[in-house]
Protein 1
Amino acid sequence: MSKSRPTAPPDLAMPSYVGGWLGRRQERVLEHGFSEHQIALDWWKKELKTAGLDAWEVSVDPLGSGATRLDRATLFELGQLAHDHESTLRFLLHVLAWGSGIGSRNNRKRLAAFSNEELRRVNLDLLQRAASIVQSGDAYANRQAYSMLIRPGGGMVPGLGPAFFTKFLYFAGRGEGKVPPLILDARVASRLYDAGWTDLPRSSRKNGYSYSYNWYTDTYVSYCELLARWADESPLGTRPDEIERALFEGLGAPPPA
């Protein structure tokens, strides 16, 4: 196991609390979403206009199905419809809204990466290629796509670091395939550290530790393989994103009814 490019311990066991989350993917993963208030629609309307992106709109019901919450199932569908620049940006904006919730931290910087026509073209070309690659749902595809979007110190698209571009890759991949791309953020990383992946990078802060990190490609690929293995070892036709959701919520969080 490399200290500079940490990969999961080969014998790392799934935390026992995760088991309580498994077996009901429809309710616990696909319907995991947020209301108009929770994704701050007024903020998005104002800031898209300011960025010159008012041709795009963020909604809890982008598919026109009558939905009142923006959920994972809807984002999977938007990802499948993202075949050109316009639809790819629409997809990304909804992923950002879902992932940000009521907070808007760094979203102005992310919008600025698309406000200029030339920047928009370059960045959407990159995102579209990465989204296409991960739809094969295997470890090699995850490696290719992640390495396209990462750079030392951040992401290739300004403001779009791993915690958010792995959301984009996850929804583009629809959670399908043998080793699908998955969301990796600081909360999930902290749960993995507690489970025994102790060479995951972290930094000391006043109130504890921070696990936000510009993950190495090797680390991300290993993470996706780890959760795929745990899913294979679990009953009930478990998918890896069920485990990701459980890790995000953590020990002591009761599964949704």
Protein 2
Amino acid sequence: MTLICYISWVLAMEHQEIFHDAGLAKLISSFSTPGGSHSHINAETPESIHEGGELGYKLSAAFGAVMDKQELIVACVVGDSEAETDDPELTAPYSGYGYQVRLYLKSRKSRDLKGTFGNEIIPWLYNSLTPGEHTFLNYLLMLKLPHPLAFLLDLAANLLNSVPPILLVYIKSFADLALNANPAIITGVPHESILRVIPAVPSKRFLQRKETNGGYNELVTPEWQKIGMQKGIQESYMKRVGEFLLEVIKENPTSFCIFSPDELVSNKLDAVFKETGRNFQWDVAARASGGRIIGILSEHKCQGMVQGCTLTGRTGIFPSYEAFLGIIHTMMVQYAKFVEIAHETKWRKDIGSLNYIETSTWMRQEHNGFSHQNPSFIGAILNLKPAFARLYLPPDANYFLSTVSHCLRTKNYVNLMVGSKQPTPVWLFPEEANEHCIAGASIWKFASTDGGVRPDVVLVGIAVELTFEVLAAAALLRKEVPELRVRVVNVTDSMILGPERSHPHPLLDSDFNALFTADRRIIFNYHGYPGELRGLLFGRPNTGRMEISGYNEEGTTTTLLDMMLANGVSRYHIASAAIRGAALVNERVAVGAQQKVPLFMHRAQKARDYAIQYGQDAPNTYDTPKFE
């Protein structure tokens, strides 16, 4: 591939030094060396959208690339050891999938290959894939060759008779130059006999497809505020997001897709079906080439297809159960590395962001249980290079709408949004929520003592259910420990918590202290594993005053409050921690701490007993907290 780029003059656009005296020798000697070119196809290779890997990964990315683009031909190169079964076993499954399979099986003897590739395979393949009145597009070519090294050794003598005509010209010209010219005058610049067969217009040259660079279609995003809600009601995140995505599909009928391994109806995103349908390729009558929903119960396939879709100019969104996004962890990391290298490659242009939505979270598993309780994908996102990763944990539906709208407009990121499909309170008006999302965090004055002025302790909620428990704790403290002064903070953009210079937009230390105070106890109630947040905060001054609660691998099939109690993130745990923290600076709180903390923990045990006895949380447990 590198040699073809060289001959096609593509590399000349970025690497003029290659065509000095050292020429091709420099290109070859820098291959797979420190400071040189990579040993495999990557984002620095023109027209590439995938670095390789297992067969299924590459195929699914290829499928995503050609969606809605019947005229586009994608070459998916599969290395040896990926398909080492007998011929019937190779062809039968794909025939069952609806493909018309053509298998070419060649021995190591070069005479068996003479002329086949250029004179038979390529014309058949191209004609098969070219749309026409009587053409079916589900063709699959399998070219089964010996190991590449053995193949090349046997093929060498007859190479010129077995390659496509255009490459034949290149090789003959270079051979004539090498044999007939004076070696002393041979330079690194390709000979004129080679250059004259290369199109003068750069866009017509090999490896110049717009889809793989410069074909990004920015989405037209509707105003989410028009479907935002007034504060004080309870609404499902996902239901409102579904209404928003419905409008996105209307505005972008060919450049936006949803890839989902889980049932959209279950995740309450089914409003999109008012405008579109599922894309069943095998059923022409069922939106075989028009549905914007790709639903297949395979996280790997969805990941590969959303990559192919995104890297060829479209925008995709990938909603899934929280526990199962971890299945595609390594695929996501490989994609992020590709995007990082692409961003550092001067000639590569921007692409849309890859957007994930986590729902059916660990605390809402009333019917599934421990196996469905796993927020580890959050840590996978946090471990990416900060310049290309974003993590959002909005506290209500208005915040989530603002976040989705923002993420669909971003470029070159991997965005993860975590939300709930169950009805939850709407805390702020749309305009207030939008301002909060821009800042990434804010003091919720309505839940704080005197608007949050001079607090004894700071309570921080990160994500919807965890924020609810913080607010329930604040309401409990206001009623039963009125002398305790509380500041309630919500964080929706967790990346701002990292120390200065750790991320493109962390809070300055001065702003961090203004939000959380410089010396008061901070109690974080966090959606993911506590160690993730602890690592994010590492480097901030005075971290010893920070107490972090989160998911601690305690799970079963149970109620929401019982799950919170099991993991130590309930309102009773938060209220108890607040009393202990405030007692360090407020003598009036300290006097009653010994009595109040056991009382709250006794209530926690009673709540667990109730859930076990009646199979549900006590009535009014999740009524919206009141601050009077």
